[in-house]
Every structure is written in C-alpha cells, then in structure tokens.
Amino acid sequence: MAFLGHNLLVPNRQQSKVVVMATSTLETDGRPNRGGRPRDPSRDGVIRAAILRLLAEVGYNALTMDAVAAEAGVGKATIYRRWRTKSDLVVDTIAEMNREETPTPDTGALDEDLRVLLRSLVAAINGPTGAASHSLLSTLPHQPALAEAFRQGPLAQWRTALATVWEQAEARGEVGPGTAHSAVAQAASGLVVQRWLLTGEALDDEYVESVLQTVVLPLARAAART
C-alpha cells in the first residue's frame, strides 16, 4: 500500500510523460485540441461573414458546415476547430453580430445622437447582418439557443445604445426623468424595425430624418413639458 501511495503522489518518468501528453491536448480556454495547426484568429471574421451570407441566402435549416467552409475559402478542419456543430457556429456568429456596428454617440445633443444611432441601425439592417437576421426570424421560436443568443447579442447591444442616448439627454436636461425607458424612447427604433419587417418599404437616412422630426423629437419635447 505504501508503494502504491508513493507512485500516486510522486509520479515516475513514465507517469510524467502521460501527464504532459494529457495536459498538452487542452487549449488555453479548456477546450480539447484536435491537433494539427493552431487556430488562426484572423480567419474568424472571414468565416463569420461567410456564415451571414449563407444564412441570408439559404436560411438556417439548409446551412451546412461544408458550405460555410467553401464560402469562406477555408478547409473543413478550420471550421471544426472553432465549432463542433452548426448550432454552435450560428449561435457564436449571432452573439458577435453588430458588435462593431453599434455606436455609442455622445455629441451633446439628443437629436444628433439619435440621428447617428438610427442611421447606423438602418445601415446594419440593410447590410449582411440584417439579411441574416431576417432569415432567422422564423427559426428562432424553434431554436431556444439561437433565440437567447439573439436577445443577449444584437438586441441587447442596440437596446443598451438607445437607452444610453436617452439617459445622456436626461442628464443634460433635454428630456424629463424616466424618458429613457418610456414609449417615447421606444418609438424611434420601433418605427424603423416595423418598416423593415412589415411594410418592406425603403429604409434610408431620409426615413430616419422623418421619424425624428415628425414623431420622436416632438414627443420628447412634449414629454419634457409635462
């Protein structure tokens, strides 16, 4: 028994080799390393862009890992080193959507902050992320992980950015307390999203200006007087 205990507590050379081999199969983030060349982070953006294009073209159900590899111009091993399943791949891509497209303007004036933010939202909707998002809408009710990624990713980013703009306006005294979380604040993005999803009419800077000048800013001024 003493001999057995000694072997467990003080590994010999052969045991040390086993320990080294076992620990070397783990990446720094704790996920198993399948061997081969190390992951190249510079390809992540290229792959995610390919995923967005394919989601817009064929939708979630028809998307395959092989198609993503072909669209991105990388080997299948490159895809599988990053994601084990199609669900993992799309969830991760959704979580990263709009991260670089969502500004946090602070120009010193509510109207200009909203103008910058809503124009950015329109640009995102009219771009690859908007097309991919539209194709996923019918899938989300049947894929809880995707729906949660959508809520915690792009939706949360835009909600936070809009709330920040209104809170800054409250701090400057441009609008009354509580406006940031009122229907007035929600009207700005609500009208843009409604036009995108329901009417199919053009979304552009001219429409943003119309929303601001005829609806949002008049409501904000009226709320400030009450």
UniProtKB/TrEMBL annotation:
Keyword Oxidoreductase applies: no
InterPro entries (UniProt xref): DNA-bd_HTH_TetR-type_CS, Homeodomain-like_sf, HTH-type_TetR-like_transc_reg, HTH_TetR, Tet_transcr_reg_TetR-rel_C_sf, TetR_C
GO molecular function: DNA-binding transcription factor activity; transcription cis-regulatory region binding
Xref: PROSITE patterns: HTH_TETR_1, HTH_TETR_2
Residue ranges annotated for the HTH tetR-type domain, each copy included: 41-101
Cited PANTHER family: HTH-TYPE TRANSCRIPTIONAL REGULATOR RUTR (PTHR30055), TETR-FAMILY TRANSCRIPTIONAL REGULATOR (PTHR30055:SF148)
Protein name as it appears in the record: Transcriptional regulator, TetR family
